[in-house]
Amino acid sequence: MTGPNHLSDLQAIIEDLDTMGRLVRVSSEVDPELELAGIAARLEGGPRAVLFENVKGHDAPVLTGLYWSRELLGRLMRREERDLPEYVSGCIRSWQQAPVDPVMVEHGPILDGNRGEVDLYQLPVPVHAEQDGGPYFDAGVVIARDPETGVRNASIQRFMVTGKDRMHINIDAGRHLELYLEKAKARGENLRFSINCGVGPGLHFAAATPAEAAPAETDELGIASVFHEAPLELVEGRTLPVHIVANAMYALECEIVPGEVADEGPFAEVTGYYARVAPRPVVHVREIHRRPNAVFQTILSGVEVWNSVGLLGEANVLALLERQVPGVEDVYFSHGGCGFYHAIVQIAQKRAGWSKQAIMAAFAAFPPLKMVTVVDSDVDIRNPSDVEWAMTTRLDPKQGIVTIDNVFGHGLNPSFPDYIGTKVGFDCCRPFPFTPEYDRAAYRPVSLDGVTMQVPEISAPGAPPVPPSVGPPRKRSRKPRRRK
Ligand SMILES: Cc1cc2nc3c(=O)[nH]c(=O)nc-3n(C[C@H](O)[C@H](O)[C@H](O)COP(=O)(O)O)c2cc1C
Ligand SMILES: [Mn+2]
To answer: Which pLDDT belongs to residue 86?
Structure first.
């Protein structure tokens, strides 16, 4: 190993984005309450991340959009977009085979700033969507330790700010943090952890690695070391016995008193729906560290999460299917499926019946999945029309649809109330052994390079102007609705 690469540090990532022309700088003053996320939503999914340099009432800039384009992520990781799932699953596999544990160091940039008073309102934490219950931290990596074994865990959770030193956290069922909280409660202890906001994509991916790939007894922070090509560096907390990322932009030392709950939500979630208000654990913030010239990071819960959670889930399902189902070539978690509800699996069939095996194996590999669609290797799994073509021309609805009732799913999906619902698999593969009526028609692949053509310009009256790829949001033609 040579030394940490740029993926280990958000400041280096911001400079990299700048060099590549992949950073929109918003210089006009923007209100962190609703306006910032509103502007980000207009640029969501574009080829550039966004830095809000002038956030009303704050000195620190706010970064968003780091994960909303797979093409951009590919650039940052020096990979073709198409090779990302393979690269990510390769990093996880390499960690499983030879873990590189993080190292504790004496000092890091996170300890260089002024600590001062604990006051969350001094941080530019945005209010994202119109009905959100308050400002939300949603991009911080939580580092906790198993109260019994001391094994570290990394995850990302949303936190609603409700006071200068108080937040309410959402921990989904089955998360390792939930397990730690139960263990702390049984021991009569508080659960202590750090929230590290503004870290590089290596650690973000380590935190988003699903439990199926990083079981509770493993220190998944080591996955970051693989992405960074050097051990992740951590420092000891100053107020609580917690571990902090040495070069995070912000780090909060926190504790939960088991049993203490208060209303959390609503929050515009990755599903496109608001998460409902419910009593959830209260978090006490005992210390706030900020690195000099810190940049706050926030995530718009849409494409950014589809890409990060989706890519990790996809990588894990692909790795497992490759081992268990002969012929599996590729897996894609579609955006229409929020990045983790719908897996499209591509298979080069070798034996009859194995496309259905692929459906069962995919469900077993990733519990949040609600739908699995299996197609042959002549179908482009990233093209929704192509997948639909396989469904309409190759699926036999009598034989090829598998449903599983009363099964555990993702609690944020409204069709899984209390985490229970029905899952469905579509076998859209041509019957095996192959028969000619399912052979796909094809034209000869011809290059247009040597072909002389006159292509007339199109200027249809009333045609909408081509939207700029980036720029200030266009003015709405209609007056904005007044909020009553
Ligand atoms: C931006 C983002 C926000 C997330 N928010 C939450 C959340 O509020 N609650 C939660 O339980 N999981 C959330 N997740 C998913 C978990 O972080 C993820 O599943 C992780 O792998 C869980 O770690 P664990 O397996 O160690 O429990 C979020 C993921 C991302 C990328
Ligand atoms: Mn874990």
So the answer is: 87
Q: For 325-436, which CATH class?
A: alpha beta
Instruction: Band the pLDDT of 92: cuts 50, 70, 90.
Output: very high
Q: How far is the C-alpha of 68 from the C-alpha of 48, rounded, in Å?
A: 9
| CA of 155, nearest ligand number | 1
CATH topology of domain 84-292: Pnp Oxidase; Chain A (2.30.110)
Query: What's at 207, amino acid-wise?
Result: A
Give pLDDT, residue 294.
Answer: 98
**Span(s) in the chain for CATH 2.30.110.10:** 84-292
The continuous run of DSSP H or E covering 14 comes out as helix 10-19
Average pLDDT for 292-300: 97
Instruction: Specify the length of the chain in residues.
Output: 484
CB 349 less than 6 A from any atom of ligand 1: no
Q: How far apart are CA 293 and CA 31, in angstroms?
A: 20
- Does 125 contact ligand 1 (Cβ within 6 A)? no
Mutate to test the pocket of ligand 1, among 66, 157, 197, 314 (most ligand atoms within 8 A of CB): 157
Residue in this structure with the two tokens 């053509």, named with its chain if needed? 453
